[in-house]
Amino acid sequence: MLEKPGKDQVDPCLTKSNADAGNAVPTASPTAIPEPEVAKASQIKTESLHNMLAQQIDVHVRQASARKSSSTFHDELWKEIPQDGFAQMAETKWDIMTEQHLSPMQRAELLHVRNMKASLQRQIEALKCSLEAFERAERELLVQAS
To answer: If DSSP codes are grouped into helix, strand and coil, which group holds residue 27?
Structure first.
């Protein structure tokens, strides 16, 4: 239920464009704030912002220095750069990755190890299948017996 504003109340929907001539509300001019008061308030706000900024900078510097002191240099992670440079180091890594650094005897041995590994994996799979077959047979015998 909407109430109509009384004589002392101002209707918020009443504007100059839709106001009747008899219902027009006089607008009050804003009171002027003295310039010294504005300057003083401005100075207080500026000092407050500077203090807040200084505190934030101090906190950031303290956190950064705490992180820096906790992450010291680890000698055991140091790796010397080879005399030949980075290109030679990358080529050496590539040769290891592509097995180009192996002698013919080492290649033959590596091939033998890989073949044995594959053979064992095939045997393990065959044994798993055999085990599953025996477990199925055991279940069938137990079910038939009852």
So the answer is: coil
3-state helix, strand, coil in the chain (%, to 5): 65, 0, 35
The sign of the CA dihedral 123, 128, 132, 138 is positive
Residue type, 76: E
Distance in Å from the first CA to the final CA of the chain: 83
In single-letter form, the type of residue at position 11 comes to D
Residue 121 predicted with pLDDT over 90: yes
Please give the Cα distance from 30 to 44 (Å, whole number). Answer: 23
The 10 Å CB-count burial string (b at 16+, else e) for 12-26 is eeeeeeeeeeeeeee
Higher pLDDT, residue 77 or 35 = 35
Q: Which tokens hold the place of 62?
A: 């303290």
CA max distance for the chain? 112
Cα(25)–Cα(15) distance, rounded to whole angstroms?
Answer: 8
Q: Which amino acid is at 101?
A: H
H or E segment to which residue 3 belongs: none
Tell the burial category of 56 from Cβ atoms under 10 Å away from its Cβ (0-12, 13-18, 19+): exposed
